[in-house]
Design goal:
The protein has a domain of about 190 residues: Rossmann fold. It is about 35% helix and about 15% strand. The protein is built from 9 helices and 12 strands. Helix 1 packs across helix 6 and helix 5 crosses helix 7. The radius of gyration is 19 Å and the shape is globular. The N terminus is likely disordered. Bound molecules: NADP nicotinamide-adenine-dinucleotide phosphate. The site of NADP nicotinamide-adenine-dinucleotide phosphate (NAP) has 26 residues, from helix 1, helix 3 and strand 4.
């Protein structure tokens, strides 16, 4: 007698809507969910600050990766960031399908000196962090809130790609050494998402194992990429960006069922290999 498979990969394909599908996370989510029927939309197809377009077929699962992610720009245009991150999430939740909402380590103040767990009190210090936190509420009851941090991937805007460009152009750069976090490879987060959607709705912390400062991350990037560029440590005060950032935002999960992500150094290695493949 045959038994129904419990392997999610072998299950019937679902109609999965990915918002922000042109972003660094959205792109690899489409790959991780390739055995499903994936519909990707980005700003050109649906600005989530407004209602869903009439042609959009009802999804069975939504991976909501669209967001205003310009942390400094949000300080200058808080209404714009709120429309995208809070109103946008409300509009996506209104589709009525179970929803993955990607949230951020920036919902925390950074005052703690040991890893932030799901049950820790939030306290964003920036407009971006506040809109991401309000977005968690806007996602509604049928949602997995996945908080991650310091995302990097082979495409799009991210710290790793900026460092590869600057490291090839300069002999020395200055990088902040007083913020610690978990640089997370988007492909590892996309794989973790597949497993989290098999778990009950709720908040999940899903960031890379290990932690570092931005300076330590840049040094590892140069070492792995074979770039000869010195890194000078500076403070956040010296860099003087418009948005304050938490000085400590390491995320860990207190839920035993949450998938554990590989170490950020493994993510860095895999990402550099992916970049080399895309360039060849
Ligand atoms: N990046 C990080 O370090 C980080 C850390 C923790 C959590 N997160 C969260 O993870 C998710 C994915 O981040 P990501 O790094 O992949 O971001 P990303 O690369 O900036 O991608 C976001 C995508 O959403 C699009 N978008 C922006 N506003 C939109 C709107 N109103 N309607 C529809 N699409 C819109 C963007 O288009 P344009 O590029 O044209 O604006 C972009 O293609 C976001 O929810 C983010 O808040 C990110």
């Amino acid at each position: 007698m045959e038994h129904a498979s419990t392997d999610p990969v072998a299950a019937r394909p679902r109609r999965v809507l990915i918002t922000g599908s042109a972003g660094q996370l959205g792109r690899v989510l489409a790959e991780a969910f390739a055995s499903d029927e994936v519909i990707g939309v980005d700003l050109g197809e649906w600005d989530v600050a407004g209602p869903a377009p009439s042609w959009l077929e009802s999804p069975e699962l939504v991976l909501h990766a669209a967001a205003w992610t310009d942390v400094d720009g949000a300080e200058a245009d808080p209404d714009g960031a709120e429309r995208a991150n809070v109103g946008g999430t409300r509009n996506v939740a209104a589709l009525g399908a179970p929803l993955v909402y990607y949230s951020s380590d920036y919902v925390f103040s950074g005052e703690k000196r040991e890893p932030y767990l799901e049950s820790d009190p939030t306290g964003p210090v920036s407009v971006y962090g506040r809109t991401k936190l309000d977005g968690e509420q806007a996602a509604g009851e049928r949602a997995w809130i996945i908080r991650s941090s310091w995302l990097f991937g082979a495409t799009g805007h991210n710290f790793l790609r900026t460092m590869l460009r600057l490291g090839a152009e300069r002999d020395e750069i200055s990088v902040v050494d007083d913020q610690r976090g978990c640089p997370t490879y988007v492909t590892h987060l996309a794989e973790a998402t597949r497993r989290i959607v098999e778990l009950p709705f709720g908040v999940y912390h899903a960031a890379a194992a290990g932690d570092c400062s931005w300076k330590e991350f840049s040094e590892a990037i140069f070492e792995q990429a074979g770039l000869d560029c010195r890194v000078r440590a500076i403070s956040s005060a010296e860099l003087d960006r418009p948005a304050p950032r938490p000085s400590y935002s390491i995320l860990r999960s207190e839920k035993p069922e949450t998938p554990r992500l590989p170490h950020w150094r493994e993510g860095l290695k895999e990402c550099l290999e992916e970049i080399a493949r895309l360039d060849s």
